[in-house]
Description:
- The protein has helices at residues 3-6, 27-34, 47-56, 74-79, 116-131, 150-162, 214-218, 300-306, 319-328, 332-350; strands spanning 16-21, 37-44, 61-64, 90-93, 135-141, 165-173, 184-192, 225-226, 243-244.
- By secondary structure, it is an alpha/beta fold.
- It has a domain at 3-206 and 331-350: Vaccinia Virus protein VP39 (Rossmann fold, 3-Layer(aba) Sandwich), CATH 3.40.50.150.
- The strands form two sheets. The protein has a seven-stranded mixed sheet with strand order 3-2-1-4-5-7-6, with helices on both faces. It has a two-stranded parallel ribbon with strand order 8-9.
- Helix 2 links the parallel strand 1 and strand 2 (37-44).
- The longest helix has 19 residues, at 332-350.
- The termini are far apart.
- 42% of the residues are buried.
Amino acid sequence: xxxxxxxxxxxxxxxxxxxxxxxxxxxxxxxxxxxxxxxxxxxxxxxxxxxxxxxxxxxxxxxxxxxxxxxxxxxxxxxxxxxxxxxxxxxxxxxxxxxxxxxxxxxxxxxxxxxxxxxxxxxxxxxxxxxxxxxxxxxxxxxxxxxxxxxxxxxxxxxxxxxxxxxxxxxxxxxxxxxxxxxxxxxxxxxxxxxxxxxxxxxxxxxxxxxxxxxxxxxxxxxxxxxxxxxxxxxxxxxxxxxxxxxxxxxxxxxxxxxxxxxxxxxxxxxxxxxxxxxxxxxxxxxxxxxxxxxxxxxxxxxxxxxxxxxxxxxxxxxxxxxxxxxxxxxxxxxxxxxxxxxxxxxxxxx
Length: 351
């Protein structure tokens, strides 16, 4: 029996039903849920992402499937298996973005991740045709809109329009929405062109308040647990994601990282400043930001707080999987701000 067939089929809740493609850890979905939407089906190929989504969104059916190989009607057929008939009103998601990231210095022309936005567009078109969707949300890194990828991005937007949507795009910075992090990402929002000939949607505006800082987010939590083989989540005090690798470099021990004039450059030893927002939470191998104390790297949970996740949210998987999940997530407060504007626009459409 396939992983799809084993997946539990939950009862429905109230809220505007949506489908989540490339759902990851569910940060965007959490923001939409907080704004009155309801994920009814979520899909990702990553097992740690699926376990995380199931744990935090128990009312949503979660499928582990590579959308690059899934038939066009795959999502439609899985929706038909839900215990109550559900017609989704929207689709949200952020396909893997490493192929477009300006931080990816080892790009390959045949990187399969570069085709994931096409697969998003393919399944979106099938869902729009079947359910006459109201809207979609597509999120990705700034690099997708760069000169190197402008042709690809233009073709992708053409696919969205061909699927029946009028689209708008903008760049949102997480620090503008009470997230203690500088994180700029491209968002494309589309509304059904036949149903909503004159879109009334506008992207959310920055909040009129000082940006939150690293100190606001993580200054009052205890020290984390250091990684150990066979360490289980329930053995980690305070929060099951509050763990990190034990510091091994002499730089953590000799005080170099606590001096402002240390001369250390580059991402591997980037020390956070207490009174500023964090740089973008996007960690590669050995690139987790250094705690402002200079004595260790951030824990996964501290990174989650810098992403705007609430205390009760938990990531599943081993340490490296959790680091990847928190790096790829959309900050929930950004998702909520965007979802509230979309919900307002829908009400205006229906009035």
